[in-house]
Amino acid sequence: MKETFYDVMRRQGISRRSFLKFCSLTAASLGLSPAFAPKIAHAMETKPRIPVLWLHGLECTCCSESFIRSGHPLAKDVILSMLSLDYDDTIMAAAGHNAEAIVTEIVEKYKGNYILAVEGNPPLAEDGMYCIIGGKPFVEQLKYAAESCKAIISWGSCASWGCVQAAKPNPTRATPVHKVPGLANKPIIKVPGCPPIAEVMTAVVAYLLTFDKLPTLDKQGRPQMFYSQRIHDKCYRRPHFDAGQFVEHWDDEAARQGHCLYKMGCKGPTTYNACSTVKWNEGTSFPIQSGHGCIGCSEDGFWDKGSFYDRLTGINQFGIEANADVVGGTAAGIVTAGIAAHAGLTALKNAKQADKQPGAE
Amino acid sequence: MTVTNTPNGFHLNDAGRRVVVDPVTRIEGHMRCEVNIDDDNIIRNAISSGTMWRGLEVILKGRDPRDAWAFVQRICGVCTGTHALTSVRAVEDALKIQIPENANSIRNLMQLSLQVQDHLVHFYHLHALDWVNPVNALKADPVATSALQQSISPHNPKSSPGYFRDTQNRLKKFVESGQLGPFKNGYWTNPAYLLPPEADLMAVTHYLEALDFQKDIMKIRTVFGGKDPHPNWLVGGVPCAINIDGVGAVGAVNMERLNLVSSIIDRTITFIDQVYIPDLLAIAQFYKGWMYGGGISGQSLLSYGDIPDKANDYSAANLLMPRGAIINGDLTKVHEVDLTDPEQIKEFVPHSWYKYSDETKGLHPWDGVTEPNFKLGSNTKGDRTNIQELDEGAKYSWIKAPRWRGHAMEVGPLARYVIGYAQGNKEITEQINFVLKTLDVPVSALFSTLGRTAARGLEAQWAAGKMRYFMDKMMANIKAGDLSTANVERWNPETWPSSVKGVGFTEAPRGALGHWLKIENTKIANYQCVVPTTWNGSPRDEQGNIGAFEAALMNTKVERPEEPVEILRTLHSFDPCLACSTHVMSPDGTELTQVKVR
Asked: What CATH number should be reported for the domain holding residue A299?
């Protein structure tokens, strides 16, 4: 973002005269004295904040709610100082035509120089009319805004994978952003989770602005800095897993001592996210710490992988950790072969993951 | 031109100019509003349309009922958790599961913290810009702002001229950048904004302060539920275990965790008392001449009640948040509400984009059907994928029309407060009388847009106090030796009867919420939700009754039709939540349950 917005506007053939007029109109529309116009012009020539269009499709707004829970940076600092959140249905003052006009203005004025953030996804059934914005299908607004953007951020599991409305039988044909016809070739950063962790969301934004490039993405398009390791890999209850100490029933003695939740259906061993390290709500806790297994909410199709309380099955790989795990399990005297086998998979699977995702480990 | 008198007492006339607001912003989800205004810019016809549908109830069919809370929690991430709580209550009702006292206290703490945070965020971040002009704040004198702050909230330490000057400087820099972000294209020169610059600066300062503070309230839910939004819940209790001084206490809810919760409760009470309530009253003083937006609030109100004092007792007498129905404006009679009575709650679809075999009749949620049927009326302007003007004579919304004994009802904080007032609830009556006296307005002032907004603030204050109550209650219970948080007797599906049905309810921040389900052979056979915005955002019904949003817009004067801030004010006073209006259908696509996300 070395280029200022004034530069961009000039590049698109807007004269300095028109630019200054735009600044005067901006001041007038706010009821401010003409003295503000040159200040606005000066700022736009020198200190640009990158415009962001934050669109909402079929969703529950949990991503926005998570975003405003960010402790570092604070949401207010992101909005006031880091970027220019020019369109976001959830918090914007404007409504109706005034709101729609902003999308057009940003797309035309800042061609190739704004970020498109998408929360939720478009339904493609019923000509898209399961989600209507301004009388038209949301998918039209999405495609229009995507056409000229610099990059797309797919917030949360809805935009990244489809999430709950795309769970079987997906009655509205809710479709994640990268599968919307015409968008596959756009640079897309997926930030999955239902919702994503607040500080992961703001960190992705800060990375884009600070380093002026996309973060390194894994093969699935997620920033590897937050999504390259499983929750299980860095879970503080992992030693209890390795030692074969498991919660068998809710609120049993093992639960009160914070033993491993694997037998209660925890999906930590198959879920790639930063919950066990970054944790939630400024490090307050994360699901496993508060006694419930991970439900795998950042994984593709997590709604359709059986009950959240079913023990993970189909894990049959052994790795170099197997010996240590088996020894630990045997010492505890309660670990079945199946569980030991599962425990052993970590290292090998990590290694395989590293093959598939360069630099993942 | 059509002139109609609705059975619920409104005179509709669509002769005047049509004004369309789409998208309605600063709400959850997607909605559209159309009104007709006469030559004096008075609204004479109003149409509210829900413009999204997700089909969640279809998705739930055949699933494990113990998983349902996680699915329905995703109906809404703003009132996050309230659908989950409603769901676990419905499953527990069906399977006759009793939860431990500690689980009841923890659930109440989570639900009350949501009430406080949601109301706070609504007031400052979704609603305030209808009353507060941030650009006008640039003209304020920080010294006078400080004096104003000290006069309305003498105990608030953040009241120095320097504090307000810092915010003003930051705001000035922001505006001078020409990039106005969320404030772009607002109606900042509209004469409908009445606050002096000092009140605007104070409110904008608290807009930012509340944004910082609200995230701390939700840490209570993170302690017990592991994350927020969308914490974890459990059929039979709560997933977190309590361990005060045993081996491994650091792996459970221990003294440090309880202290964290307790300190947040104290800070929350202080913030509501010193910032939210004084701001609410100060802003209301300037707008108390703007008495629009009553709609049906003076005649038809409904609340299911919530916050059980003792665990497992859902009778009205044990619910700290009031339950009942008021109809025909008769406050002397609060009717009993029974969610299992097929004659009380019914949903209609003649003006909704759904199909019934007989659309003259309504269906009780246990027998509910949700089959989408997107069809526009012959008087629609535009076409199927480019709607200019809706035809309200035909189907025009993704929201169904629920009715209580045939009446369109308003739900939410105002409904709860008026019902509590009518029942003589001591705490609620004291709060209401305090506000009426402070603002020097009669009881009738409650039935308005401002009344709705005021009731929400009072309820946040009430809820913060009740958090302290349940925290103390839980500590006393732990002290007495009870650590239990979950009942697992019926956890195993093999212990379940082959066919059962249940209903669960809560008072979501936006109003009465109910889930009805049937379980057959350990799987969900039918799941139906009727949510607050289904009640408030309801379209017309078979009889022609208009819903609460539509009624509240009627007869309002719009100063500048191209800048309809008055429409936004009234719609926002309900805190609409449209994702909640989603219906679910069965896997074969023939039977849909409606989930209305409020």
From this structure: 4.10.480.10
